[in-house]
Amino acid sequence: MLPKLSYRLAIDLGTTSIGWCMLKIDSNCQPQAIIKMGVRIFSDGRNPKDGSSLAVKRRQARQMRRKRDRFIRRKSKLIDALVKYKFFSDNPIVRKSSITLDPYELRKKGLTEELAPHEFGRAIFHLNQRRGFLSNRKTNAIDSASSLLKQAIVNLHEKLDREDCKTLGEWLAKRKSQGLGVRSRLLGKKAKDKAYEFYADRGMVEHEFNTLWNVQKSFNPDLFNEGAYSELRKLILFQRDLNSVRPGRCTLLPEEERAPIALPTTQLFRIYQEVNNLKILSVDLKEIGLTKSQRDHVVSLLVSKNKVSFKVIAKALGLPKDSSFNLQDGKRDFLKGNITEALLSKDEYFGSAWQIFSLTEQNQIVSRLLNEPNEELLIEWLVDSCNLEVDAANRVANSLLPDGYGSLSKVALDKILPALMNEVISYDKAVVAANFDSHSALSHPYLTGEIMSSLPYYGDPLRRHVAFSKENPKNDEERFGKIANPTVHIGLNELRKVVNALINRYGHPSEVVIEVTRDLKVGRKKRQEIQQSQKIKQDLNERLINEACEVLGLSMAGLDLN
Question: Dihedral of the CA atoms 496, 501, 503, 505 (nearest 10)?
């Protein structure tokens, strides 16, 4: 390390770069000279084409590998089980000869006639190859492809009934005899024309397995015993549960999980927090706070709508037409409402019955909608517990609630929301009124008083802002957790490298001044909106330049626009 210097470290942290400058300062902290400066360039961890996280492609490739590996393991286990229960020969050569048998004819024949053990084994092995679509609400809710599949499945059920086919296999055998395809194919080139001719679901495969088994059991009950049924059925139809993704930590109660944005309590919290901050701008631009009655009136407008414009708010408060508010600007002319209630109170969902439920009951319903992966169980619960008709329950189960999580847990929200509702106060005052310490008082340095010799991994001091740690952690990321936004995660890690390298060489700075770009924490959707806005402005500028050139008789090629 060089002799100790008194210097100010200035840092400009961007999405793909860190600019830094060391300024020598005197005893009065006044800058004297530049010691050193530089820039560190790095990737933001996103795909330059669409702004998505690079981790998404890695995860998708990993999922495909795992899916293939599981299929191979399941097939191997099924063969072993079929050999074990005498449906396949233990001789690989003899077993392989059954591949010449037509599985579709066997699946049809097995509904009325006795099959030889190896013929039944061939039919069951074929069922395992294409087990049908099993919907998971959490992964298929916003997937347009799954919507096409569901419609094709409904159509196939109707075809089976109309053509009086007992099972999927019988219907496929009939198509094959007519020279028609037996594989599900996506038809149509344009999005509006795309459709599957037919598609099977897991329920059809399960029904066929049970039907075939019961028919064959009547011919040979000893071979078709309960033990064989249980093991083979589990191997063919088993579906592993999805690993649940745990939300991040609550910033006030770090051991609690953050509440979903769609939760009615979260929606109300956001509305009251925002309206409490709303101020009327007078002619001389002085800010006038809302009275409690004005605040409640504005809240009543927002609780049942997606959004309400500032013009409507001003009219409802009896203000002049040209009135404006502190939260109003050229990019924002409305306040968000209760998105969850605006959706679920529509006639095709709960309708007016949604307002009859208490806030606790609404939270319970939304939590079930967000967390229940089984669509059939969810619909059954909605019918039994919420008194919905089956069609309405089906629509509610497939409704698209806002995704994501807030920064506070349900426990913290339940304490802070009453404080926001009782008085027209800001969030920081409501936090104190709810007997919480302020956010600054909950910071790691404030609580521990620890002064570190170098920058640690950011997850250590920012424990309230990262995800939960993993079991048996192998590194700091798994031990402390990390921020989900890849750009922020990479930027903070790169900042740590720069600062620690300067400390090792020049000692600790006397002052640190840092500027953080707003784009650093912007997510994929917001980044796309910014890029789209920039493109519109760029096109407008080019059009205006072209028009000016025409008026002035200039050529664009001769202009230097840099």
Answer: 180
Indicate the SS3 state at residue 16: coil
379-397 burial, b at 16+ Cβ within 10 Å, e below that, comes to bebbeeebebeeebbebbb
- Token pair listed for 193: 């024309």
pLDDT in tens, 452-486: 889 999 988 888 888 888 888 888 888 888 888 88
The pLDDT tens digits of the residues spanning 192-241 come to 778 888 999 899 999 999 999 999 999 999 999 999 999 999 999 988 87
Token reading at 166: 């007992």
- Angstrom distance (rounded) from CA 53 to CA 58: 9
Rounded CA gap, 373 and 60, in Å?
20
* 3-class DSSP assignment, residue 253: coil
Q: What is the 3-state secondary structure (H, E, C) of 429-445?
A: HHHHHCCCCCCHHHCHH
SS3 303: coil
* Residue 328 C-alpha from the chain's centroid: 29
Cα separation, 250 vs 539, in Å, equals: 43
Q: 314: which 2 tokens?
A: 């001003």
Q: Which has the closest alpha carbon to 3: 452, 505, 509? A: 505
Q: Which residues, other chains included, contact 423 with Cβ-Cβ below 8 Å and sequence gap of 6+?
A: 292, 433
User: DSSP readout, 224-243?
Assistant: S-HHHHHHHHHHHH--PPPP
Tell which residue, 133, 132, 128, 118, has the closest CA to residue 77: 128
Six-digit token string for 307: 């959004």
Task: Please state, as a whole number, how many other Cβ atoms lie within 10 Å of the Cβ of residue 171.
Answer: 24
Beta-sheet strand order (sheet of 31-41): 31-41, 17-25, 7-13, 511-516
Which element (helix H / strand E) includes 24? strand 17-25
From 219, 197, 211, select the one nearest 168 (Cα to Cα).
211
Q: Quick one: tokens of 412?
A: 């913290």
Enumerate helices (H) and strands (E) in the chain, giving the number of each.
22, 13
Look at the chain and count its residues. 562
Separation CA 389–CA 339 (nearest Å): 23
pLDDT score for 450: 77
Nearest-angstrom CA–CA distance, 512 and 37: 14
Alpha-carbon distance of 392 to 307, in angstroms, equals 25
